[in-house]
Amino acid sequence: MHPDEIIFHKIEDYLRERLSPQDRVAFESDMAADAALAALVQRQKQEKQALELLAERDLRARINTWERQMPATLAPAGGRYRLKWVRWAAAAMVVFAAGWWLIRQTGPVEAPVATRPETPATSPKTAPTPKQPERRQKTETPKEVITDAEKRPVPAPKTTPPAPVQKTVDYAALADEFYRERDFFPAGQSTGSGAAGYDQALQDFKKGRYSDILPKLRPGGKLDSKDLKTKELLAHSLLKSGQYDAAIAAFREIVNTRKQPYADKAEWAMALVYLRQMPGKSAELDRALQRIVARPGHLFYGSAKALRGRVEKE
Amino acid sequence: MTDTNTQHPNWTDETLANAIRNGGPQREAALQVMYQKPGLRETVIRFVLDQGGNREDALDVFQETLLLFDRNLREGRFEGRSSLTTYFVGIAKWHWLAQRRKRGRQTELLPDHYDGLVESPESEILQAEHRGWLEAALGRIGERCRELLRLYQLDYSMEEIAQTMRYANPDVAKKEAYRCRMRFRELLEQFPQWNELLNLK
User: What is the pLDDT, as a whole number, of residue B107?
Assistant: First the structure.
């Protein structure tokens, strides 16, 4: 093992408190005597902190999964309304099962095709998750009633219910639907300052030649950090060419400047990048949309609300 | 991430704290238990609503609190002087009141809101203004290195990393971890903000 690698692992052991008390004391006295080593430890500590972003991303994704799995009684908002809904659904199921049993009592009729309980058309506004957690579906089925009914002699069903079709959501199509180029680059837009490079790049963008754009936008490999318009075009080129991580980073930089309208546009574009990466980025998408809908003055407030509704419906 | 995680009969404050501190696969189960702990969410929500927030703020605070709680425990900042629930609620209070202050609403931070919870100077690098370029650096590191560094950050052992990432053995995983970290270092050094941060310390 290379000496640098040995030092690296030693520092990691120190930072992660994996050294024995004696080794720790010895290492600390080495640091006190060697400024270069102390600086290296500091640097590695900072890198470790930076890597917390990975842990954070991971946990956010898990939180989102847990949210989807949570029973109604633990619902984040409007929990009581959800509970009411569950009671309502259970009552409806009992009535339905009792009715079915009565019909069978009165004469041999064609057995109804088994159906799943329908979601009420007017679900309360405060229960935002339309998908019901799997555990809830199991507990809501009044199995006892159905089992009793099934014990009675009934004619065999003449029709077989069709096999359930797994519904898959085409998030890319949804992203295409919500991504309107004119929202970001209105027709006839140019720098107006004679920046031919930008104008040419914008034309390439509109023609879908995304790979041609980068060299035109940053000919020397560098970008003027204050030129938000160019940054915005670059970020959209990254998005369009499928470089999502880089696109997110570029949009985030624009958001952080808080300069309008660029910041609002970039925030909305970020949500759309996450939408393209669904279902893997559902936590990020949720949070991005939450940030927008929390601010009614946001340029894309209406669009974000509509998208949130669509994602929840899907 | 199944129900059995949360219904583990032996979860106590001690086992939960240890599972989170030690990282690895058990951490996730322990965090799920905390996240779904009966009454905890409601306590946080009630506090935020009482302190001028809305339900969306409250859920946001609850989720952010879990992130802070996880990090604090892994970094050894929980000393076991209170129950985990009290500690969690303490972080939530501190976080919400700090949020309110950022939004310009004057709120008094009382000692019991922040005692032992103050962010370390290092964690400043995770503040919003640094996230953009840090994300950019992580974006350039490559999917496989990113996954390896995530597992390494969460204290998975080299055996677990080798198994998860299908490396021949733990030694190969260790070598790869070093290579990826050096790559990450190189990428960070391309950002002037990173060098500024290092010089500030």
Answer: 52
The Cα–Cα gap between A102 and A97 comes to 9
Question: Please, is B143 exposed, middle or buried when counting C-beta atoms within 10 Å of its C-beta (0-12, 13-18, 19+)?
Answer: exposed
Which pTM was predicted? 0.52
**CB of A67 within 8 A of CB of A287?**
no
Type of residue at A95: V
Give the one of B36, B58, B188 whose C-beta lies nearest to A66's C-beta. B36
The 10 Å Cβ neighbour count of residue A207 is 9
Q: Which residue of A has its CA nearest to B143?
A: A245
Q: In which residue are the tokens 């019901």 written?
A: A132
DSSP A213-282: HHHHH-TTS---TT-HHHHHHHHHHHHHTT-HHHHHHHHHHHHHHT-TTHHHHHHHHHHHHHHHTTTTTH
List the one residue out of A176, A20, A312, A57 whose CA is nearest residue B131: A57
Of A58, A70, A290, the CB nearest to B36: A70
Contact predicate A301/A295, CB 8 Å: yes
Nearest alpha carbon to residue A238 among B187, B156, B50, B136: B136
Contact A43 B198 (CB under 8 A): yes
Which chain A residues are within 8 Å of B123, Cβ to Cβ? 49, 52
Nearest Cα to Cα of residue A271 among A233, A231, A311: A311
Chain A neighbours among B 62-81 (CB < 8 Å)? 62-63, 66-67, 70-71, 74, 76
Is 80 exceeded by the pLDDT of residue A84?
A: no
Residue B139 identity: G
B-interface mutation test, from A68, A70, A74, most B Cβ less than 10 A away: A74
CA distance B99 to B95: 6
* Residue A89 neighbours by CB distance under 10 Å: 18
DSSP one-letter code for A212: G
B179 touches chain A (CB under 8 A): no
What domains can be seen in chain A, in order of their start residue?
Answer: 3-151 (no CATH), 171-313 (1.25.40.10)
Most trustworthy range by pLDDT among A61-75, A237-251, B113-127 = A237-251
As for the ipTM of the complex, it is 0.85
What stretch of H or E contains A11?
Answer: helix A3-15
Of B55, B150, B197, the CB nearest to A55: B150
Where is average pLDDT lowest: A62-66, A238-242, A300-304, B50-54? A238-242
**B61-93 pLDDT, tens digit each:** 999 999 999 999 988 888 888 899 999 999 999
* pLDDT profile of chain B (201 residues), mean per 10: 51 92 89 93 94 90 93 87 92 89 61 47 56 85 93 93 94 96 93 78 52
- Tokens, residue B34: 């905390």
Put simply, the answer to whether A42 touches B201 (Cβ < 8 Å) is yes
